[in-house]
Amino acid sequence: GAGVSQTPSNKVTEKGKYVELRCDPISGHTALYWYRQSLGQGPEFLIYFQGTGAADDSGLPNDRFFAVRPEGSVSTLKIQRTERGDSAVYLCASSLTAQSSYEQYFGPGTRLTVT
Amino acid sequence: DQQVKQNSPSLSVQEGRISILNCDYTNSMFDYFLWYKKYPAEGPTFLISISSIKDKNEDGRFTVFLNKSAKHLSLHIVPSQPGDSAVYFCAATGDKTDSWGKLQFGAGTQVVVTP
To answer: Is B107 within 8 Å of A42 when comparing Cβ atoms?
Structure first.
Protein backbone atom coordinates (compact mmCIF):
# COMPACT_ATOMS: atom_id res chain seq x y z
CA GLY A 1 0.00 0.00 0.00
CA ALA A 2 0.94 3.64 -0.29
CA GLY A 3 3.21 5.06 2.34
CA VAL A 4 3.38 8.57 3.73
CA SER A 5 3.83 11.11 0.98
CA GLN A 6 5.03 14.69 1.24
CA THR A 7 4.92 17.52 -1.23
CA PRO A 8 6.88 19.29 -2.47
CA SER A 9 10.05 17.26 -2.16
CA ASN A 10 12.10 20.44 -2.37
CA LYS A 11 11.17 24.03 -1.73
CA VAL A 12 13.38 27.06 -2.17
CA THR A 13 12.00 30.34 -0.91
CA GLU A 14 13.23 33.80 -0.09
CA LYS A 15 13.57 35.09 3.42
CA GLY A 16 10.32 36.60 4.62
CA LYS A 17 8.05 34.53 2.36
CA TYR A 18 5.26 32.18 3.40
CA VAL A 19 5.44 28.43 2.69
CA GLU A 20 3.12 25.47 3.03
CA LEU A 21 4.30 21.88 3.28
CA ARG A 22 1.86 19.05 2.75
CA CYS A 23 1.68 15.57 4.24
CA ASP A 24 -0.52 12.65 3.18
CA PRO A 25 -0.45 9.97 5.88
CA ILE A 26 -1.04 6.28 5.40
CA SER A 27 -4.74 5.64 4.91
CA GLY A 28 -6.47 4.85 8.19
CA HIS A 29 -3.71 6.26 10.39
CA THR A 30 -5.23 8.60 12.92
CA ALA A 31 -2.02 9.95 14.44
CA LEU A 32 0.21 12.30 12.44
CA TYR A 33 3.50 13.87 13.44
CA TRP A 34 5.74 16.61 12.08
CA TYR A 35 9.47 16.64 12.74
CA ARG A 36 12.28 18.88 11.57
CA GLN A 37 15.74 17.58 10.80
CA SER A 38 18.63 19.99 10.59
CA LEU A 39 21.94 19.03 9.05
CA GLY A 40 23.84 16.54 11.21
CA GLN A 41 21.01 16.18 13.69
CA GLY A 42 18.24 13.71 14.35
CA PRO A 43 14.60 14.54 13.73
CA GLU A 44 13.20 17.03 16.22
CA PHE A 45 9.54 16.82 17.21
CA LEU A 46 7.34 19.74 16.19
CA ILE A 47 3.67 18.80 16.56
CA TYR A 48 1.40 15.78 16.74
CA PHE A 49 -2.24 15.34 15.72
CA GLN A 50 -4.68 12.76 16.95
CA GLY A 51 -7.49 13.04 14.44
CA THR A 52 -8.18 16.64 13.58
CA GLY A 53 -6.85 18.21 16.75
CA ALA A 54 -3.31 19.11 17.66
CA ALA A 55 -2.67 16.98 20.74
CA ASP A 56 0.79 18.41 21.37
CA ASP A 57 2.33 21.43 19.64
CA SER A 58 5.07 21.95 22.21
CA GLY A 59 7.83 21.51 19.62
CA LEU A 60 6.81 24.36 17.36
CA PRO A 61 9.68 26.84 17.69
CA ASN A 62 7.60 30.03 17.59
CA ASP A 63 4.33 31.48 16.39
CA ARG A 64 5.53 31.67 12.78
CA PHE A 65 4.88 27.94 12.60
CA PHE A 66 1.38 26.52 12.41
CA ALA A 67 -0.09 23.20 11.30
CA VAL A 68 -3.59 22.02 10.47
CA ARG A 69 -5.32 18.75 9.76
CA PRO A 70 -8.91 19.80 9.08
CA GLU A 71 -10.35 16.43 8.04
CA GLY A 72 -8.16 14.14 10.06
CA SER A 73 -6.13 12.99 7.09
CA VAL A 74 -3.93 15.39 5.10
CA SER A 75 -1.93 17.88 7.14
CA THR A 76 -0.31 21.16 6.16
CA LEU A 77 2.60 22.76 7.98
CA LYS A 78 2.63 26.51 7.46
CA ILE A 79 5.59 28.77 8.03
CA GLN A 80 5.20 32.54 7.92
CA ARG A 81 7.95 35.11 7.41
CA THR A 82 10.53 32.42 6.77
CA GLU A 83 14.05 32.87 8.10
CA ARG A 84 17.30 31.28 6.96
CA GLY A 85 17.36 29.26 10.18
CA ASP A 86 14.18 27.51 9.06
CA SER A 87 16.16 25.69 6.38
CA ALA A 88 15.91 21.98 7.16
CA VAL A 89 14.22 18.77 6.07
CA TYR A 90 10.66 18.64 7.36
CA LEU A 91 9.51 15.09 7.99
CA CYS A 92 5.99 13.86 8.45
CA ALA A 93 5.11 10.54 10.07
CA SER A 94 1.91 8.67 10.84
CA SER A 95 0.88 5.78 13.04
CA LEU A 96 -2.32 3.80 13.43
CA THR A 97 -3.08 5.58 16.68
CA ALA A 98 -0.75 7.32 19.07
CA GLN A 99 -1.58 4.96 21.90
CA SER A 100 -1.46 1.63 20.07
CA SER A 101 1.87 1.96 18.34
CA TYR A 102 5.08 3.79 18.90
CA GLU A 103 6.17 2.73 15.44
CA GLN A 104 5.86 5.71 13.21
CA TYR A 105 6.04 5.55 9.43
CA PHE A 106 7.91 8.44 7.89
CA GLY A 107 7.56 10.17 4.58
CA PRO A 108 10.61 11.16 2.49
CA GLY A 109 10.53 14.72 3.78
CA THR A 110 10.44 18.18 2.24
CA ARG A 111 13.78 19.93 2.00
CA LEU A 112 13.19 23.61 2.68
CA THR A 113 15.87 26.11 1.73
CA VAL A 114 15.41 29.74 2.72
CA THR A 115 17.72 32.08 0.81
CA ASP B 1 18.51 19.55 26.13
CA GLN B 2 19.55 16.45 24.24
CA GLN B 3 18.00 13.52 26.08
CA VAL B 4 19.11 10.88 23.59
CA LYS B 5 22.75 10.81 22.55
CA GLN B 6 24.64 8.91 19.91
CA ASN B 7 28.25 9.82 20.47
CA SER B 8 29.70 8.08 17.43
CA PRO B 9 28.84 10.01 14.28
CA SER B 10 30.24 7.29 12.05
CA LEU B 11 31.18 3.62 12.00
CA SER B 12 33.03 1.66 9.33
CA VAL B 13 32.81 -2.13 9.36
CA GLN B 14 33.78 -4.93 7.03
CA GLU B 15 31.12 -6.99 5.35
CA GLY B 16 30.36 -10.09 7.41
CA ARG B 17 31.54 -8.56 10.68
CA ILE B 18 29.44 -7.27 13.55
CA SER B 19 28.30 -3.64 13.70
CA ILE B 20 27.67 -2.27 17.18
CA LEU B 21 25.89 1.06 17.51
CA ASN B 22 25.54 2.74 20.88
CA CYS B 23 23.00 5.10 22.35
CA ASP B 24 22.74 6.77 25.76
CA TYR B 25 19.78 8.55 27.30
CA THR B 26 19.34 10.80 30.29
CA ASN B 27 15.61 10.66 30.96
CA SER B 28 14.79 7.78 33.32
CA MET B 29 11.11 8.14 32.40
CA PHE B 30 11.65 6.75 28.91
CA ASP B 31 10.15 3.28 28.66
CA TYR B 32 10.29 2.45 24.96
CA PHE B 33 13.21 2.62 22.60
CA LEU B 34 13.42 2.33 18.85
CA TRP B 35 16.04 2.19 16.13
CA TYR B 36 15.40 3.72 12.74
CA LYS B 37 17.46 3.37 9.59
CA LYS B 38 17.70 6.12 7.01
CA TYR B 39 18.94 6.10 3.43
CA PRO B 40 19.71 9.38 1.63
CA ALA B 41 16.63 11.22 0.32
CA GLU B 42 14.31 8.86 2.16
CA GLY B 43 12.51 9.11 5.47
CA PRO B 44 13.63 7.05 8.46
CA THR B 45 12.41 3.44 8.44
CA PHE B 46 11.56 1.58 11.63
CA LEU B 47 14.03 -1.22 12.31
CA ILE B 48 13.57 -2.68 15.79
CA SER B 49 12.33 -1.65 19.21
CA ILE B 50 12.51 -2.66 22.84
CA SER B 51 10.35 -2.05 25.86
CA SER B 52 11.96 -1.14 29.16
CA ILE B 53 10.66 -4.37 30.72
CA LYS B 54 13.05 -6.32 28.51
CA ASP B 55 16.81 -6.28 28.16
CA LYS B 56 17.07 -7.84 24.73
CA ASN B 57 15.06 -8.05 21.55
CA GLU B 58 16.11 -9.89 18.45
CA ASP B 59 14.87 -9.76 14.87
CA GLY B 60 16.91 -11.64 12.32
CA ARG B 61 20.34 -10.04 12.01
CA PHE B 62 19.37 -7.20 14.36
CA THR B 63 19.50 -7.33 18.15
CA VAL B 64 18.90 -4.48 20.55
CA PHE B 65 20.21 -4.60 24.09
CA LEU B 66 18.96 -2.35 26.88
CA ASN B 67 20.82 -1.62 30.11
CA LYS B 68 18.41 0.48 32.17
CA SER B 69 20.74 1.04 35.08
CA ALA B 70 23.33 2.52 32.74
CA LYS B 71 20.69 4.25 30.59
CA HIS B 72 22.35 2.69 27.58
CA LEU B 73 21.19 0.71 24.60
CA SER B 74 23.00 -0.81 21.68
CA LEU B 75 22.12 -2.22 18.30
CA HIS B 76 24.03 -5.21 16.98
CA ILE B 77 23.96 -6.12 13.30
CA VAL B 78 25.36 -9.56 12.52
CA PRO B 79 26.56 -10.18 9.89
CA SER B 80 26.85 -6.72 8.38
CA GLN B 81 25.92 -6.42 4.71
CA PRO B 82 26.61 -3.64 2.18
CA GLY B 83 22.88 -2.79 2.14
CA ASP B 84 23.16 -1.92 5.84
CA SER B 85 25.14 1.20 4.92
CA ALA B 86 22.85 3.99 6.16
CA VAL B 87 22.35 6.42 9.02
CA TYR B 88 20.94 4.78 12.15
CA PHE B 89 18.93 6.79 14.65
CA CYS B 90 18.17 5.81 18.20
CA ALA B 91 14.86 7.14 19.54
CA ALA B 92 13.06 7.04 22.86
CA THR B 93 9.59 7.76 24.11
CA GLY B 94 7.16 6.95 26.89
CA ASP B 95 7.82 9.74 29.32
CA LYS B 96 4.30 10.12 30.65
CA THR B 97 4.82 13.84 31.00
CA ASP B 98 5.14 13.90 27.22
CA SER B 99 2.52 13.03 24.69
CA TRP B 100 2.20 9.52 23.36
CA GLY B 101 4.41 8.78 20.42
CA LYS B 102 6.53 11.90 20.75
CA LEU B 103 9.85 10.42 19.75
CA GLN B 104 13.13 11.95 20.87
CA PHE B 105 15.95 11.12 18.51
CA GLY B 106 19.70 10.96 18.77
CA ALA B 107 21.88 12.65 16.17
CA GLY B 108 22.48 9.43 14.26
CA THR B 109 25.42 7.20 13.36
CA GLN B 110 26.51 6.82 9.74
CA VAL B 111 27.38 3.18 9.11
CA VAL B 112 29.52 2.22 6.12
CA VAL B 113 29.91 -1.48 5.36
CA THR B 114 32.92 -2.14 3.18
CA PRO B 115 33.42 -5.24 1.01
So the answer is: yes
| Contact pairs from chain A to chain B, CB under 8 Å | 71
**Mean pLDDT of successive 10-residue stretches along chain A, which has 115 residues:** 91 98 95 94 94 90 96 96 97 83 88 98
Single-letter code of the amino acid located at B72: H
Compare CB distances from A33 to B41, B89, B101 and report the shortest one's residue. B101
Radius of gyration, alpha carbons of chain B: 14
Is residue B20 helix, strand or coil?
A: strand
Of A62, A8, A43, residue with least CA distance to B106 = A43
Q: Which stretch of DSSP H or E encloses residue B97?
A: none
Q: How far apart are CA B99 and CA B103, in angstroms?
A: 9
For residue B1, what are the CA distances in angstroms to A44, A46, B26, B104?
Answer: 12, 15, 10, 11
Q: Which residues of A touch B107 (CB under 8 A)?
A: 40-42
